Inverse folding.
């Protein structure tokens, strides 16, 4: 039997995955003022990991990304709930948010909002759920 | 002037998409249909680009990149399925 040789797809994937992850982080960061946000950022990130799954096999990707995606989804939901509870601790209603302007060393005057933490939770939940679905379907044991 | 040119190019893109859909429906083998789907994604990208120029709106540029990525991943997945019979391998067999 002829041994399959996929050097081209591996070489392309090693370059493209970096671009996809960068684009996913850009979508996640720009969600406050431009189109994007936690949901689509998480989906783009998980599509990059799915490209890794397609090119390499499942065991080596699991070995190189040692993250349990069920735990990742649970941590995401926990972060999203805790940002709401954190508003309650300061005598504000549940899920109320605040923002402020800070002087950061490199970026200068930057607006930091607590909605970003909620978005982090949404992104982690989306990544964990979609990759858990893909891995449990693709595992044909 | 430029609006007429953009609408004309949208018309030709629609014509091209109909030709691709003909290949998608008629195509005798599976690789024909997969290539038609890939070309359909590229035509949708150019259609969205022309549409965003027509609207004068930069909000669709992320969508263009995202459709490119998703079309690439979908084509890779279909090609893996045709070549190996399985989309995600459990352990590399060599």
């Amino acid at each position: 039997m002829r041994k399959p040789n996929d050097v081209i797809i591996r070489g392309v994937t090693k370059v493209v995955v970096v671009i996809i992850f960068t684009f996913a982080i850009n979508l996640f960061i720009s969600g406050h003022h431009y189109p994007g946000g936690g949901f689509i950022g998480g989906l783009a990130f998980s599509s990059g990991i799915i490209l890794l799954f397609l090119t390499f096999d499942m065991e080596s990707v699991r070995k190189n990304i040692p993250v349990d995606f069920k735990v990742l989804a649970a941590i995401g939901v926990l972060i999203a709930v805790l940002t709401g509870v954190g508003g309650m601790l300061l005598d504000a209603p549940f899920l109320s948010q605040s923002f402020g302007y800070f002087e950061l060393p490199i970026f200068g005057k930057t607006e930091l909002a607590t909605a970003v933490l909620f978005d982090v939770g949404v992104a982690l939940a989306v990544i964990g759920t979609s990759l858990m679905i893909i891995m449990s379907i693709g595992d044909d044991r | 002037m430029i609006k007429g040119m953009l609408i004309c190019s949208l018309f030709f893109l629609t014509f091209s998409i109909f030709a691709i859909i003909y290949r998608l429906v008629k195509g005798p083998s599976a690789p024909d249909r997969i290539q038609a789907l890939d070309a359909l994604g590229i035509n949708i990208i150019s259609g969205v680009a022309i549409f965003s120029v027509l609207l004068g709106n930069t909000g669709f540029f992320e969508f263009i990149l995202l459709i490119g990525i998703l079309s690439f991943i979908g084509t890779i997945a279909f090609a893996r399925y045709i070549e190996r019979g399985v989309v995600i391998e459990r352990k590399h067999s060599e």
In short: The two ends of chain B are 60 Å apart (CA to CA).
